[in-house]
Write a structure and sequence with these properties.
Number of strands: 8
Number of helices: 13
Structural class: alpha/beta
Shape: globular
Radius of gyration: 19 Å
CATH topology: Rossmann fold
Bound molecules: thiamine diphosphate, magnesium ion
Low-confidence stretches: none
CATH class: Alpha Beta
Distance between the termini: 51 Å
Number of domains: 1
Largest sheet: 6 strands, parallel
Strand content: 5-15%
Order of helices and strands: HHEHHEHEHEEEHHEHEHHHH
CATH superfamily: Thiamin diphosphate (ThDP)-binding fold, Pyr/PP domains
Length: 323
């Protein structure tokens, strides 16, 4: 299938927008007005955009600590996201959650929880509810390679397979869990996508930095998950550009070799796609500059909104404690 010019531009614009928003978060973080930890997705944008462009508004997603890209790609409000990062009452969790608790029910962002692996069963539960209620919606559950080491991953795969649940498991394999490389945590004989097969779930490995591959493959897979009501797992190799948690680069710690870094730095999903769009005359340098300016204006207003918003009243602190 060919991708139309308008979709190509949309895929590029969405990735660029997420990148610019996160770069702005990184540049303002030192002002110490955002008091929550931030796990940036810089380098991993293609996965969020490629998958979410194939989801409908009423489809749901769940995600984890590294959630900004998923939230934005699924249509979550940028103002509410930044309000949340600034701890303001206008935030999507009323300023009580911070970066790792993004939620936007209108956009279908149903949960972001930093307990590693914890949203995999939540997504599975939502998919089960959809099935029982005969809804034609699906769930995409985003998680990292580290989350596949949690027991709930296996339990969720089994349950989803047993009940033929309409859920897409999306594993963003950036090869690291904080500073630990996957080779230190998982046997070289272990394959995340094959684990899904052992539960009777189909799977596919996709290049996590190739936006068109992700978009085209997940289009077919999502149609199948919907029409056949069957789970599917995709595993996407990718690369985290910045430190595990925070706005900086932590390569000085030498936990990733120069060879590894240089290899992945050539694979930036946005720079490479920009080259492609320019080379084949889908976009000119001037049009890209204009796009940048428009996005930057949106970001500027959203940051102003968040900074000017009020902090929550103290009474809210107890209002949402249920146990
Ligand atoms: C149950 C649990 N164990 C440990 C942690 C600490 N922790 C936070 S993020 C993280 C790494 C998770 O790696 P991965 O799932 O690959 O996601 P990535 O950070 O690479 O996006 C760990 C171990 C946690 N939050 N929850
Ligand atoms: Mg990881």
């Amino acid at each position: 299938m060919k991708i139309s010019k308008s979709i190509k531009i949309k895929l590029f614009r969405e990735m660029l927008r997420i990148r610019l928003i996160e770069q702005t978060i990184a540049s303002k973080y030192h002002e110490a007005e955002m008091r929550c930890p931030v796990h940036l997705s810089v380098g991993q944008e293609a996965i969020a955009v490629g998958v979410c462009q194939n989801l409908k508004k009423n489809d749901k997603i769940v995600t984890a600590h590294r959630s900004h890209a998923h939230y934005l790609a699924k249509g979550g409000s940028i103002k509410k996201m930044l309000g949340e990062l600034y701890g303001k009452v206008t935030g999507c969790a009323k300023g009580l959650g911070g970066s790792m608790h993004l939620i936007d029910l209108n956009a279908g962002v149903f949960a972001a929880v930093p307990i590693v692996g914890s949203t995999i069963p939540i997504g599975t539960g939502i998919a089960w509810a959809n099935k029982l209620k005969k809804k034609k919606e699906i769930v995409a559950a985003f998680f990292g390679d580290g989350a596949t080491e949690e027991g709930v991953f296996f339990e969720s795969l089994d349950f989803a397979s047993l009940h033929d649940l309409p859920i897409l498991f999306v594993c963003e394999n950036n090869e690291y869990s904080v500073y630990s490389h996957i080779s230190k945590r998982q046997s070289s004989k272990r394959s995340i996508s094959k684990i899904a097969n052992s539960f009777g779930i189909e799977s596919l490995q996709i290049d996590g930095n190739n936006i068109e591959d992700i978009f085209l493959e997940t289009k077919k897979i999502i149609d199948k998950v919907k029409s056949k009501s069957k789970p599917f797992l995709i595993e996407l190799k990718t690369f985290r550009y910045l430190e595990h948690c925070g706005p900086n680069n932590d390569d000085k710690l030498n936990y990733r070799t120069n060879k590894y870094l240089n290899l992945w730095k050539k694979k930036c999903p946005i720079i490479n796609y920009q080259h492609h769009l320019k080379k084949y005359n889908y976009l000119t340098t001037k049009e890209i500059e204009k796009m940048n300016m428009k996005i930057r204006a949106e970001i500027f207003h959203a940051f102003n909104f968040a900074k000017k918003s009020k902090f929550p009243e103290k009474i809210l602190l107890k209002k949402y404690i249920y146990a």
